[in-house]
Amino acid sequence: MRKLLEVIVTSRDEAVEAELGGADRLEVVDSLENGGLTPPLEVVQKIVDAVSVPVRVMVRANASMSIDGPAETKRLKDCVRELCRFPIDGLVLGFIKDSAVDLTATTAVLAEAPACRVTFHRAFDRLAHPLRAIKELKTLPQVDRILTTGGEGPWAERKNRLIDWQRAAAPQIGLIVAAGLCPSILADVSQHCPLGEIHIGRAARTPQTTSGRVSRTQIASLKSLLG
Predict the structure, then answer these.
(1) How far apart are alpha carbons 132 and 90 in whole angstroms?
(2) CATH class belonging to 4-225
(3) DSSP result, 133-182
(4) I need a surface site. Which of 18, 77, 194, 213 has the fewest CB within 10 A?
(5) Within 10 A of 31 (CB to CB), how many other CB atoms are there?
(6) Alpha-carbon span 103 to 81, nearest angstrom
(7) pLDDT tops 80 at residue 1
(8) Does 93 score more than 80 pLDDT?
(9) Is the Cβ–Cβ distance between 63 and 34 less than 8 Å?
(10) What is the rounded distance in angstroms from the CA atom of residue 198 to the CA atom of residue 18?
């Protein structure tokens, strides 16, 4: 199975650098130090004009994993409606409430994007009952990806959990492995794991911090681990 590498970027220059390094898909965000917020529309426009790889765009208005009331819901709906006018591959979002998927808020926001594919992001790692959440997310036809670390614990435990979750999510939803800063995870996914998509953020940067610069050399090195 060919492995896909998704890279977080915040600007046109970073997007071009990531594509040159071998990124297969980009996740566009603003305010990476806050875990990624919705980027300005003009940044999205510049990126989709500059790259040929698929682009997904973050939809998130605050640093929490929840929506702060009806006014924020409206802003997010307006934002989604605008983003869907771009030639993007999809959106990235994740709203939770009381450690469960906030289906009411998620359904309301996705109503503005009936034909747009969606990644449910790492809010998934804060859910109390992941398998129940997968079942709920499968009722939302736009959701075709879940981004997750696989939960707590060493990689061996997380890998087994990820495989179980992917089995539960198939065929509607594929899992994207949030690899963190450990290159050995990429090598193990390549050789011993049936999951096909890997996500990196700080690992694509030099230094490996939210303020580091996206490096094509760093990305190419990590991509080589995927075979």
Answers:
(1) 24
(2) alpha beta
(3) HHHHHTTSTTEEEEEE--SSS-HHHHHHHHHHHHHHHTTT-EEEEE-TT-
(4) 194
(5) 15
(6) 19
(7) no
(8) yes
(9) yes
(10) 14
- Residue 194: the pLDDT is 87
Amino acid at 118: V
Burial of 83 (0-12, 13-18, 19+ CB in 10 A): buried
Pairing assessment for the beta strands 197-200 and 4-9 based on DSSP bridges: parallel
Beta bridge partners of 164: none
- According to DSSP, the residues that pair with 57 across neighbouring strands are 28, 91
Show Cβ contacts of residue 69 under 8 Å, excluding neighbours closer than 6 positions: none
pLDDT the model gives residue 224: 93
Mean pLDDT score, 183-195: 87
What is the dihedral sign for C-alpha 164, 4, 152, 192?
positive
The first and second tokens of residue 89, run together, are 């591959």
Nearest C-alpha neighbor of 147 from the set 40, 49, 37, 27: 27
Domains of the chain, by residue range, sit at 4-225
Cα separation of 216 and 20, whole Å? Answer: 6
Amino acid identity at 94:
G
Whether pLDDT at 100 is above 90: yes
Token reading at 101: 């998927």
